[in-house]
Write a structure and sequence with these properties.
This protein is of the alpha+beta class and about 210 residues long. It is about 30% helix and about 25% strand. Strand 2 and strand 3 (about 80-85) form a beta hairpin. The N and C termini lie far apart (about 55 Å).
C-alpha cells in the first residue's frame, strides 16, 4: 500500500523549500503593494499562480523558469483596478467592472477567518478493513491569495489545486471535495481566476 501520508508530508516540505527564497517578481509585487498602501489604498488583493518546480508561462507568459506571475487587484475611488507583475515585462493598469469578488470576502469575513481547507482524503479498503488516508494528486500547482484591508494582511492561503479535485490518484474520490469547494477561499479563487481569464487580452505587456 503506498504511503499517502508520507507523500503529503513530502509535498508540504517541497512547498516550504520553494518559499524559502523570494523571487524578483515577488519583491516587485510586494513593493507595488507597499506603494499602494502609502497612497492610502486600503483594499488590495494579490493572486499568484505557482508550483513546486515552477516553469512559468501561465496565460501565455514568457518569463524564465525562475519567475512567478502575480496579479494585483485594488479598489480606489469607487473603482477596481488590476495589473500583472513579473520581472520580465511591464503591464498596464486596467479598470475591471466585474468586481463582485470583494463581496465574497466582506460578506463572509468571519467565516473566512475560521475556515481551513482540508487535506484531501480517500477511502481505501484492504484485507485489514476500511481506512481513510490523507493524500494528494500528482499536481504541484497552487494559487496563493493574499488580501490586505486597512494595511493588514487579513487573508493568506496557499492551497494546492489538488485540494479541490474531486478525484485523486488512482481515481479515488476526495471525500473532502464538497467541503473544500464550499469555502470562501475556493469561491475567491474561482472568481479571481475567471476575471483574469476574461481580461487576459487587456493585460498585454507594454512594449
Amino acid at each position: 500500500m503506498p504511503s499517502y501520508l508520507s507523500f503529503s508530508i513530502l509535498f508540504f516540505l517541497c512547498i516550504v523549500t520553494a518559499h524559502s527564497q523570494q523571487f524578483p517578481s515577488e519583491k516587485q509585487a510586494d513593493a507595488f503593494i507597499a506603494a499602494l498602501q502609502k497612497q492610502k489604498v486600503d483594499t488590495i488583493c494579490s493572486l499568484k499562480y505557482d508550483a513546486v518546480g515552477y516553469l512559468g508561462g501561465h496565460y501565455g507568459g514568457d518569463c524564465p523558469e525562475t519567475e512567478k506571475i502575480i496579479y494585483i487587484f485594488w479598489k480606489a475611488n469607487g473603482k477596481t483596478y488590476l495589473t500583472q507583475k513579473n520581472n520580465c515585462k511591464e503591464y498596464p493598469v486596467i479598470v475591471i467592472k466585474d468586481d463582485q469578488f470583494w463581496n465574497i470576502y466582506f460578506e463572509n469575513k468571519e467565516l473566512a477567518a475560521t475556515q481551513k481547507i482540508k487535506v484531501p482524503e480517500v477511502i481505501v479498503k484492504d484485507s485489514t478493513g476500511t481506512h481513510i488516508h490523507k493524500t494528494l494528486s500528482f499536481h504541484y500547482s497552487f494559487k496563493e491569495i493574499a488580501l490586505y484591508i486597512n494595511g493588514k494582511r487579513v487573508l493568506d492561503d496557499k492551497s494546492p489545486d489538488s485540494f479541490f479535485h474531486k478525484n485523486l490518484i488512482h481515481n479515488r474520490k476526495n471525500i473532502n471535495h464538497s467541503y473544500n469547494t464550499s469555502t470562501v477561499i475556493y469561491k475567491l479563487r474561482t472568481a479571481l481566476d475567471k476575471i483574469i481569464q476574461k481580461n487576459s487580452k487587456r493585460l498585454v505587456a507594454l512594449k
